[in-house]
Design goal:
Layout lengths: L1 E6 L12 H10 L3 E6 L6 H6 L8 E6 L1 H11 L10 E5 L5 H5 L7 H10 L2 E11 L3 E4 L2 E5 H11 L7 H10 L5 E7 L2 E13 L21 E7 L3 H7 L14 E6 L1 E5 L7 E2 L9 E13 L1
Helix pairs in contact: 6-7
C-alpha cells in the first residue's frame, strides 16, 4: 500500500507537529509506504492535492482537523472521477467531526491508521455548494446565520481549545438577531425569520455538537436544521441540548431531509462549510449520493 498524506503541522494549534515522527513510524511498522506533503498555510491542502498526480497511490490521507479534510476533499475533486482515490483521515486537529461520525474519537490517529491498513472502503455522500461567488464540496456541514457568527468569534478564542465555541456562542447570544430567509427544499418553498440554518451530511459538527442526530452519511439526503426567532433566554436553554441532539425537541427547531436545498436572503450572507468561511448567499446545496470512497 502506498499513500499520499497531506499533513497539517498547524493542526490543534501546532500540537500536531509533535505527532509527525510517531505517525511516520506507525506507517513504517505496518509496511505502508506513506509520502508526506506538509501544508504551510490555510488553504494549502487543496492545491497540494489538485496539482499532484494521484496515479500510483492507493489512498489519500488528510492528517489534521475538519479544515484539513475540507481542503483535501476539494483538492481531490479537482481530479476527474476516474482518477480519484479513496480518502482516509488522521484526526489530529481541534475539530474532528467527520472522524467522530466514523467512530474515531479525537486524537485516535493510531486507530485511524489501523483502519487504513485494513484497506476496506465504503461509499459516502458528499455535499456540493454553489453560491454567488464560490463553488465547493463538503462532508460535514454548511451553515449560515448565528452559528457562523459564533464560529468567527470562536476563531479568536481557539487557543482555549474545546471551550472556545461554547464561550463564543454565549457571547453572540448577547447580540442575538434573526434573518429573513427563503428556503427551497426539494421544490417546496418556505419563508421565515431564522436565527440559523444548518445543512448537515453527518451527525456532528465542531468539537462536540450533534447538530443532526438523524443524519446518515450514505442515504442520499442532507439534513436541514432551522432555528426560528426566539428569545435570548430561550436560546440559552436550547444551546446545551445541541451536545446530544435534544434540541430537536424544541418547537423553534424544524428539521427536513432533502436532496437539494436553495437558500436566498435579502442581503448576501456568509456561509461556513466544515469550519471554514466560503461563499455568500444565494446558495444551492445538493447531495451527491455515495460519491466518495473512504477508508473505514
Amino acid at each position: 500500500m502506498k499513500l499520499l498524506v497531506i499533513f497539517n503541522p498547524g493542526a490543534a494549534y501546532g500540537r500536531a507537529t509533535g505527532k509527525l515522527a510517531d505517525i511516520r513510524a506507525r506507517f513504517d511498522s505496518l509496511g505502508i509506504r506513506a509520502e508526506f506533503l506538509l501544508t504551510t498555510k490555510p488553504g494549502h491542502g487543496k492545491p497540494l492535492v489538485a496539482e499532484t498526480n494521484l496515479a500510483g497511490y492507493d489512498g489519500l490521507i488528510a492528517a489534521g482537523g475538519d479544515g484539513t479534510v475540507f481542503e483535501v476533499l476539494n483538492g481531490l475533486y479537482q481530479h476527474p472521477r476516474k482518477d480519484r482515490i479513496p480518502l482516509g483521515l488522521l484526526p489530529i486537529g481541534t475539530g474532528n467531526a467527520f472522524a467522530r461520525d466514523l467512530g474515531l474519537p479525537p486524537a485516535a490517529w493510531r486507530k485511524a491508521i489501523d483502519l487504513i491498513h485494513r484497506d476496506q472502503t465504503r461509499l459516502v455522500d458528499v455535499g456540493h455548494v454553489s453560491t454567488s461567488n464560490a463553488t465547493y464540496y463538503f462532508l460535514n456541514i454548511v451553515h449560515m446565520g448565528f452559528s457562523v457568527d459564533a464560529n468567527r468569534t470562536a476563531l479568536k478564542l481557539k487557543f482555549l481549545g474545546n471551550s472556545a465555541y461554547t464561550l463564543a456562542t454565549l457571547w453572540r447570544v448577547l447580540k442575538l438577531g434573526s434573518y429573513r430567509l427563503e428556503i427551497e427544499i426539494d421544490g417546496d418553498t418556505i419563508n421565515d425569520d431564522n436565527v440559523f440554518v444548518a445543512v448537515s451530511n453527518t451527525r456532528y459538527t465542531g468539537t462536540h455538537f450533534m447538530m443532526a442526530p438523524n443524519a446518515v452519511i450514505d442515504d442520499g439526503l442532507l439534513d436541514l436544521t432551522m432555528l426560528t426567532r426566539l428569545s435570548r433566554r430561550r436560546i440559552l436553554k436550547l444551546f446545551p441540548t445541541i451536545y446530544d441532539g435534544r434540541h430537536l425537541g424544541f418547537d423553534e427547531v424544524t428539521t427536513r431531509k432533502a436532496e437539494r436545498i436553495t437558500i436566498r436572503s435579502p442581503e448576501a450572507m456568509l456561509l461556513a462549510p466544515d469550519g471554514e468561511f466560503l461563499g455568500h448567499s444565494p446558495a444551492e446545496i445538493r447531495c451527491l449520493h455515495r460519491d466518495l470512497e473512504i477508508f473505514v
